[in-house]
Amino acid sequence: MSKLSIRAVSKVFAGGTTAVDNVSLEVADGELVCLLGPSGSGKSTLLRMVGGFEQPTSGRIAIDDQDVTRLPPEQRPTGMVFQSHALWSHMNVFNNLAFGLKLRRRPKGEIRDRVENVLELVGLKGYGQRMTSALSGGQQQRVALARSLILEPKILLLDEPFASLDQHLRERLREEVRDIQLRLKITTLFVTHGQDEALSMADRIVVMRDGRTEQADRPELIYRDPQTPFVAGFIGTMNFIEGRVENGRFLHADVAVDLPVADGPLTLAVRPEALALVHQGGGKAIIHRVTDFGTHGLVDLHLSDGTRVKCMVASPEPFHAGETVALNPRAFAAFRDNVKLYGTTHAQ
């Protein structure tokens, strides 16, 4: 059993810059939790504090109820995989992997067996004598993962490990890493700014902004039921339409829906797949561009107040640039003063 506990952790750098502001998080045994956010949100700083590469200004970090807040990295039961691979180019793959075990004075036979086993685990069986400089970027990242796993850490830490790889390789590697994580049942904290990676890999996603947690939830709830405008706009594509509620109805020049909230200004949040387009009905939204993705179409529109919105359609054929259409939201959320008042963005 390996669990991670982060309690009220903050990090203030010299000069007064607050990178992490009073964050608490519990990661259960075998769970993969993704820290997701834009650059400067504090996600990598939080990960580095868990690994011991940064010291918290305040708060507590525990692994299996043992306080590790002030322990150096080499004394923590964690394994870190960096974006830059951080491999020793003058060593072959075997020696890169064996280095940590040699420092721990493990027997030669055990080192050989563990290196062979971990190479097979990451799909690099037979690569032990290759120089790391002769490997592709994806192979180097597999070696970096193997180097962390060979020490059998209780907590695996991944700091944007796929950011330097091309899209196709990134997608393949994240599937492989997730398969390995599930097979080993290793507790994992993963940092990324890629929404697709978070949604496809994580058991839970923690969305961070300005050093704070905006929302922590299962991927499907983060997408379907965002609790703040920031989360709604950061995860996936979201249309925001500004209007007013009067007598239980949201009013905009191009959109009107029943909305049981108090009167006043309000922001409607609608996913492209939850927005239907109707040629009839006197609509005034103007189609700007239609894109055919094969599996679906995407229609870009201008509303009368200049707002740009996107709509996903099953087939792009009925729609053409310059036409006017009416908008019919099938599902939506409503925000006022950064507070969610109503709804879900998931269309049944």
Automatic annotation (TrEMBL):
SMART domains: AAA (SM00382). Signal peptide: none annotated. It comes from Rhizobium rosettiformans. PROSITE patterns: ABC_TRANSPORTER_1, ABC_TRANSPORTER_2. GO terms for cellular component: ATP-binding cassette (ABC) transporter complex. Residues 4-235 form the ABC transporter domain. Keywords: ATP-binding, Nucleotide-binding, Transport. Belongs to the ABC transporter superfamily. It comes from the Bacteria. GO terms for biological process: quaternary ammonium group transport. One of its GO terms (molecular function) is transmembrane transporter activity. InterPro entries: AAA+_ATPase, ABC_SmlMolc_Importer, ABC_transporter-like_ATP-bd, ABC_transporter-like_CS, Mo/tungstate-bd_C_term_dom, NA-bd_OB-fold, P-loop_NTPase, Transp-assoc_OB_typ2. This is Putative spermidine/putrescine transport system ATP-binding protein.
